Amino acid sequence: MINNITLGTMADQQITKPAVSPGQAQESFANTLKAAINNVNNSQIASDNKTEALANGQIDDLHDVMITAQKASITLETSVQMQRKAIDAYNEIMRMQV
């Protein structure tokens, strides 16, 4: 067996499912989501800290401050777009007739 695929002839190939319970899948998804949210939060905090340090005259590198602010903005915008896509997918699933 290679990569969860049982080898054989083309007619009798079978794909085996990994043994993951729904609870484990939920926990894994929740942990991934928490890590992504923490990443967005850390980017925002870093941007705020550098902006405050620039305003206080503690650093002079405006380019670094702007780059950090842009990274934080892109990270936040990406997470908002992912949220919208997830909500759209959920709504689409709820509209399906069984």
Automatic annotation (TrEMBL):
Localization per record: Bacterial flagellum basal body
Question: Carries keyword Ribosomal protein?
Answer: no
Q: Which InterPro entries match?
A: FliE
- Is Heme tagged as a keyword? no
For biological process, the GO terms are: bacterial-type flagellum-dependent cell motility
Any single GO CC term annotated in Swiss-Prot or TrEMBL for this entry: bacterial-type flagellum basal body
Main location as per UniProt: other
A single GO molecular-function term is:
cytoskeletal motor activity
Which keywords appear in this protein's UniProt record, sorted alphabetically?
Bacterial flagellum, Cell projection, Cilium, Flagellum
UniProt superkingdom: Bacteria
Matching entries from PANTHER family are given as: FLAGELLAR HOOK-BASAL BODY COMPLEX PROTEIN FLIE (PTHR34653:SF1), PTHR34653
As for family, the record states: Belongs to the FliE family.
Protein known as: Flagellar hook-basal body complex protein FliE
Organism per entry = Oceanobacillus jordanicus
User: Could you tell me the gene encoding this protein?
Assistant: fliE
